[in-house]
Amino acid sequence: MSIDGHKILIANRGEIAVRIMEACSDLGLPFAALYTEEDSQSGHLDVARRLGGERSLYRIHNYLDAGDILSVADEAGATAIHPGYGFFSENYRFARRVVQRDRPMTFIGPSWEVIRDLGDKINTKRIARALGVPTVPGSDRAIYDELEAEAIAESLFEFQAKMGIKRPVVLVKASAGGGGMGIDECEDMARFRQTYRRIRNYSLRTFNDEGVLIEQRVFNFNHLEVQIVSDRSGTNPVHFGTRNCSVQSPGLQKRIEVAPGFWPQGLRYTFDAGKLLDDITRYSLSIAKEIKYDNVGTWEWIVTPNGEPFLMEVNTRIQVENGVSACISSVKGDRDVNLVREQIRIGLGDPLGYTQDDVSFDGVGIEYRLIAEDTESGFAPWVGKIEELKWPDREWLTMHTHVPTDRTYQIPTEYDPNLALAIIWGKDLEEAKARGLQFLNELRLNGSDSSGGAMKSNIPFLIAKTANLLEF
């Protein structure tokens, strides 16, 4: 199937909108771009005008207004919608609406059935366990019986004691919850029954479903990911390596991502790190094949200090950090790997065109998320105006940003204060870290708030965390 004749509506903003526009331009595809009043000064509008002309831009009220987005798609004559990440990217109802409406379009992402099935954490855990893929110990279905809940909790406390965990903890979660709602933890059976009843009642009140999940609480873990790509056949998934996303804010928001996920070539681990990376890659591919995964996606893992992996969830979308995997990858010897471009191409029906044997890896990539935030005050967002964003061009550096570099930019308070992504490549971990520090120290990022106070960013935090990347 040819991708010619398609037009992409980009249902997103900022840096990812820029990357989708650039990928469409590479593929020779026209696009329509969206913006809100709050985003009228964003650099993604500049890129839209440069690559698509003034008529490629459409103003909407809200990036979460499905009706508005679909109306623009019709007005623009779009044949496909790319949701980017966030917003509608993992909303299976929106994806289903896109493909089943009177004027159907293509949803650039997995099929809505796959988004639905893997978005259900209980279902994902059940599929994983049927395939022998390790998941966080605990229930793989909602528990409604108190005696059964107690039996599961007792087994988890015993399991943690055998693992030598000094302070065992069990998580009690509302099965219908999400976003951190309806979760509590207890450290012994004496508190478990009270906690279980409280969460069950909360779940019934809030979600009209008193089902509860019981899981082991895992402390001191590394957060790893496996990048999967598969075409619409769903039969030939390949992986683009692993990433380590363990440098996070206290709110568990990623700040640095590194590819590959560990570096046994230069660091010592208490376990066979090379085998672990192979294992989580193999496990991830087995689930992708089982469910006939048909686009780009990420399998998220936690790894304990003794090298035990547990599958957490599957993200059925492109992720912010896709570029750090691309930067260490080659396909048939070609280093120009762009996973956003691949996502669009295969999403429109092109066959993948290569196998795992055609994908190779070289070096280490580091991605820094540059954010206006006060890391010394709970990572609170900083509000103000960017007056300067400049960096020296380097052959080993790729920058993605929607912040204009030719004028001041008021950060919209309606959205996250993410400013840019910097991706650094090195032949090994030491070179990548050295180049990363060079970039962070050369970067000129300045601004002021409404009272004239100097800008606050996470640059000092990123510098401090670079020293120990991939150590565990």
From TrEMBL:
Alphabetized InterPro entries for the sequence: ACC_Biotin_Carboxylase, ATP-grasp, ATP_grasp_subdomain_1, BC-like_N, Biotin_carboxylation_dom, Biotin_COase_C, CPAse_ATP-bd, PreATP-grasp_dom_sf
Catalytic reaction(s) noted: N(6)-biotinyl-L-lysyl-[protein] + hydrogencarbonate + ATP = N(6)-carboxybiotinyl-L-lysyl-[protein] + ADP + phosphate + H(+)
PROSITE patterns documented for this protein: ATP_GRASP, BC, CPSASE_2
Keywords: ATP-binding, Biotin, Ligase, Nucleotide-binding
Pfam families for this protein: Biotin_carb_C, Biotin_carb_N, CPSase_L_D2
Taxonomy, superkingdom: Bacteria
Keyword Nucleotide-binding among record annotations: yes
EC code(s) of this entry: 6.3.4.14
Domain Biotin carboxylation: 4-472
Domain ATP-grasp, chain residue ranges per copy: 125-348
PANTHER family per UniProt: BIOTIN CARBOXYLASE, CHLOROPLASTIC, PYRUVATE CARBOXYLASE SUBUNIT A
Function: This protein is a component of the acetyl coenzyme A carboxylase complex; first, biotin carboxylase catalyzes the carboxylation of the carrier protein and then the transcarboxylase transfers the carboxyl group to form malonyl-CoA.
Protein's name according to its UniProt entry: biotin carboxylase
